[in-house]
Amino acid sequence: MKANSKLDNGKAAVDEMIAAGKKSGGKAEPNKIQDLSFMYGRSIEDPDGHIWETVWMDMSAFPPQ
User: Fold this and answer.
1) Are 35 and 57 in contact (CB under 8 A)?
2) Residue 54 lies inside a defined structural domain of this protein
């Protein structure tokens, strides 16, 4: 299964998704940003109060199975 090329952009793709959500009326960062070098996550609260988490993981940081 091929990943969506937009999602292959790592942290930048997460930031773009949060920016798009803010532009549509969401509130960015209801939860703390997670930046663990191999994993990056941000959240946004939509106008109805639902919190959405967007996460990128560097799969090359994990050993092959």
Assistant:
1) no
2) yes
pLDDT, one tens digit per residue, over 28-59 is 999 999 999 899 999 999 999 999 999 999 98
Q: How many residues does the chain have?
A: 65
Number of domains, the chain: 1
65: in domain: no
Q: What is the pLDDT at residue 8? A: 62
CA angle centred on 9, ends 6 and 15, rounded to 5°: 90
For 8, the token pair is 């292959």
pLDDT at 4 > cutoff 80: no
Task: For strands 51-57 and 27-28, give the pairing.
Answer: unpaired
Range of the domain at 18: 5-59
Taking the C-alpha atoms of residue 53 and residue 65, their distance in angstroms, rounded to an integer, is 27
